[in-house]
What we know:
Blueprint: H1 3-20, H2 27-36, H3 44-55, H4 58-63, H5 66-69, H6 77-98, H7 107-118, E1 126-131, E2 137-142, H8 151-165, E3 169-175, H9 185-200, E4 205-211, E5 216-218
Parallel strand pairs: 3-4
Antiparallel strand pairs: 1-2, 1-3, 4-5
Helix pairs in contact: 2-3, 6-7, 8-9
Amino acid sequence: MSNNLHDGHRQRLKERFSKHGLDPFENHQVLELLLCYVIPRKDTNEIAHRLLKEFGSFPAVFEASAHELCRVEGIGPQSAELITFCGQLIKRYQTEKRNTIRSFASIDAVGAYLLPLFVGERNEKAVVMSLNNRWELLGCDVLSTGTLTGTEARTREIVEIALRRKAVGVILAHNHPAGFATPSPQDVETTRKLASNLRLMDVPLLDHLVFSQTEFYSLRKSPHYAPLFSSFNQQ
Length: 235
């Protein structure tokens, strides 16, 4: 394709976006338009298709590392930097938007709030949500390491967070980056020990949520595990 044809196609994409936004764009066209801003003289349509073929989905493109992106023909360091920047920008937007939410009516609302924290994560992450007696968010803290092993150390860390936040209840959450949102036997045993330890320290454990990339599992909502958790009445 000649430069004039490239330029005309790019201009039409930009005008279409200006008039209609991204809604009428297919995923490859979104990537094609994005790459127009960093690749001046190549057919970005072909590169966009290569990205989707290599990573399998639109979200996976933005979750890929710069090193992985550069393995795709047509993607250089600047293009990879732009794509990874956009991925991080999306995540920052979701985080900041979540921070405007302060009160939760249900565990499902808590799960919906936390899910974006784990989307795209390749490593295990564990967080503690601190709540007051009206289920209003006081803070959401990432534990020092991703796993929940070492219950004595975890108890101390969670108690310190709860005291600092002046919380009257906490919710644990962690992810299975490459698996399902189903608690493992180790998850259940760790929850059992943590709940018992925290109860002795007068820090009610309200729930433990396990996340995959797309969904979550509440141990409290399961009849098998509900007795592990402290009662908690909203006021």
